[in-house]
Structures are given as C-alpha cells and as structure tokens.
Amino acid sequence: MKERLRYKMLNPVIKDVKFFMAHTPGLVRHGSKPSREIKKNPETLELIQSSLRSLNEAIAYAPHQAMLGNIYPDELLNLPSPWYENPTTNNSPKGPHGEMVGEEIFYGLLKSVDDFGLISIEEELAKKSRVMIEKMGYLSTDALNKIEGSPLAEIEKQLAENSNTLPLTLGTGETIGLVTTDYADDPSLSPDILLENLTVKATATMALKSVLQSNAVNPESIDYVIGSGEEAIGDRYNRGGGNLAKAVAEAVGCMQATGSDIKAFCCAPIHATVVGGSLITSGVFPNIAVIGGCSLAKLGMKFQGHLRKDIPIMEDVLVGFAILMGPDDQTSPILRLDSVGKHTVEAGSVQQKIVEALVQAPLTKLGLKFQDIGKYATEMHNPEITETAGSGNVPQTNYRLIAALAALNGEIETGSKTRDAFVKTHGMPGFSPTQGHVASAIPFLAHALDDLKSGKYQYSMFLAKGSLFLGRMTHMSDGESFILEKNPATR
Amino acid sequence: MVNLLFLRKTQPHDKILCNARREEHKMDLKGKNVIIVGERDGVPGPAIETLVKSVGGTPALVQTQCFV
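Structure tokens for the assembled complex are given below, as produced in the milestone run.
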C-alpha cells in the first residue's frame, strides 16, 4: 500500500486578471429589456439605434479607461462629469488590465468559437474581421479558419424564410449576419439563448487567452478552469448544465485541464476564486484559471431611462474576465483563505448582519481593523448608468454600509463627514459596465494587484452579493468575501 | 385599502424606525394590507416585512429587487 501523500499546505496567490471588453451596439437590441420592448413596439428599435455610441466614444468613456487600467478608479472623481459628455482625451483601447474591441472584430470572434455552424456572418465583414483578429495574435490558424463568411443574399433569404433565426446587425442597423439553431423544437437551444452563450464563450475565451499570453503561461500548464458566469448552458433536459469552463479551456488550448462552473448569481466569481484557492492549497490542482463571460441579457437594461433623459445608451459593452491563480510565487498577493466571509442562511435578510458576516468577520479572523484595508471592492457598477435610470448609486450604498459598521464598532466617528471621508479613502466610484457577476468586486482586482505589489497598502477586501431571490427559489440573497494580502516575501 | 410601502433608500433598520418616529414619516399600517418592495443593496423585502408585521400591518406581497 502506498504511503499516504503528505501535502505541504500552500498559500494560493492571485497572479493576474485580464478583462476583455467588446463594444457591441448592434447587439443591444438582443439584450433582455430591449428585445422585450421591441416586441411590444417595433418602433423602439429605431429609438435605440439613434442613441448608440460609436467605438471611439466607448473607448474614450472614462469608466472604461478605468476598467482597462489606464486610469485609477479614484481619478474618476477628479474628471469632469457627466463622463458621457466629457470623453477622455488621452485614451486607448488597450491598457495594462485588458482591451476593448469593436463589433466587427467581435462578430468574427463569435464565428471562431462557434463549433456547430450556428452563426453566419457576411463575407466582406468576415474577411475584414479575420485580418483584424489575426493582428491581435491570440487565435491559432485553425480558429482563424473558422471565420468564414456567407453571401449577404443568402443570409437575408434565411432571415426571411426561417423563423428560427435572429438577425445580427451593426450599431447602424445594417444586417451582417444571423444566428440560428440546429434543433428548433428545443426552447433551451433557441437562437437567442445560443447567441447569449456564444457571446459568453467568446469573451471568456479572449480574456483567458489574454491573461495567459501576457504572463507567458503555457495553456497546457493550467490544471483546472472554473467558470463563474450567469449563463445557463444546456438543452431541454439539462438547462443550466453548464461547464462553459471546459469549453473555454478547449478553445484556449488548455489541453491538460478540465473544469466546472460555480453558480451563485453575481457573487459566483468570489465563490469561484475561493474554491480555486482551496484547490491550490490542498494540492488537488495547483494552476487554476477562474473565468467569467459576459452578460448579453444586460445590454440596454436601463435603456428606457437613458432615452428619457436623451443621453446615450451606456449599456453597450460586453465584458469577460480571466483570473490566473497558483501556489505562492513569493511575489503575487496572497488570497487569505483564513479570512473568507460568508453570508450564512442564519444571517437572513438583515442588512447589518449581512455586512457583519461579509466585512467584520473576515477582519476579526485576521485581527485587522476596518481602516487596515486599503481598498474595499464591492459592487462596482458605474453609477452614471444606474442613477440616470433611477436605480441609485450601488457602490456608494455598499461603502456607506461598511462605514456605518466601522462607526458602530467605534473605529470612526459617527456623522456624514467621517463617513464620506471613509468612503473616499477606502472605497471608490463605480466604474464597471452593468454586467452582473463581472461588476461584482472583480473590476477592482487588477488595480488591487497593482496596489498590493507596489506596496500602496497591505490588504484589500473583496465582497460580492448575489440576488438569489430573482430565481424564485428563496427570498434570500447571498454573499461571500475574502481579503487579499501583499505577499510577505516582498515586504 | 392597500398601502404601497416603497422603501428604496438604503438605511439601516434603526434609521428607518428613527424616520418613522418623525411626524412627517408616520404611517398607520395597523390592519392594512401592504405591498413591500425591498432592495438587495438597501433594505431587503423580508426585513421590511418584519417591521410591517411589528406595527400590525399585513404584508400582501413581499418582493426584493436587484437594480443592477
């Protein structure tokens, strides 16, 4: 009998995270809210198309520059607002934390991840897209060869004759392709659901390729990929069966990996990161990637509010991310598994109890005070998108709750001045597109890694919440949190 | 009669009670059916439900919304 393996407990570290953003004004019509409203009133489509942004406008939009790492989130407070009326002058579609592409490239990427012939795009667009994608240097020749076009006349004929198709258009309204299904009787494989899932696969694939390539990591060294998105992949017998993670692992060439998805609404990325860290520490899988694809359903979610105010529809960007994790490399920030905070069933719906469980408990476990955390990352939704539609400033709300708890604990004085000072120092303005799970704490991760590596502060906390009640199985919400620590070897 | 109690402002419970004590915010919910719309990042529906019950109201519908 073999001697039982003795694992050396390894601290997990987060090495890097990259975001892949796609400006897709033509897909806004397929967002959940716009598609429902267009069905009710077809004229809505024209109104939407007249309020969409160009790629250059989306790139110059200050919150997007914060996502890409070209500006620090706090700097948004010093920029003239509203940000949609004050584009940045020094901007780039690429940054240290990711990149943004336009819809012409994105349609080519959709085609490249489509293994079942579900997407058709027009010939000229396919050629143009392939050239631009090849220049990015991510895709293999095999993947590039999948970007084949079809004659526009054929696409238009199919759209006219086949009711199981959805048009793919540019932001201008020009039809350039379609998505269809290979099993029309299955509502779980309808064209809208397949489009949603393919956009998820494309954004997550590109984010994972990006994080591996920029860190010179061989895809074959990845042991396990964990999906953390909110898509539901499967057919009529297994809607939500999932494992996008393995599909993405295949697309990226992680040939020695397997994977699985973790489902927990918007806080799934935090759950997935903690699970990833645990797999590293236990020695089960040393090299982990946590991925999250985009949320097509949330494109144009607040479009009615934006139209009412005669401002651009700002939910026109899809975002995917990929986090690279591994055992302690003596450099990267450590995921303190002994700090994990959880929203227990017992905590119920009492906000104070929830914040205590997610914020105070992790601090207590590590013997830290509220102000020992350099920055808290919570729901990072861009308030310019939500406030203009009457949905409030979600990050600010969460930061104020943390400040209130700090005051209750006697660590800061009560009063709005000290509260606002705490929020300014330990929080930040929201800067993420409203992409559900993507926006929940993760957008700040790349900035936090920079800060912790440079020694700006020693600790950063990540907390996210999930709206379980939306699925009608419980009235509860969920949440999880962890603390990242500057690697002690670099002190 | 149905009263619509719509609490969207994020306030800890003690603050809500505090506001309720103010004359201008007072609502007599005793014996009334109340539709409750809470917010995940503010005051969730079940928390408001507890308060409504405590002052003699009858929750007719309890929902929590997520605005992102």
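Strands of chain B lie at 2-6, 33-39, 58-65. The helical segments of chain B are 13-21, 45-54. Further analysis is deferred to the final report.
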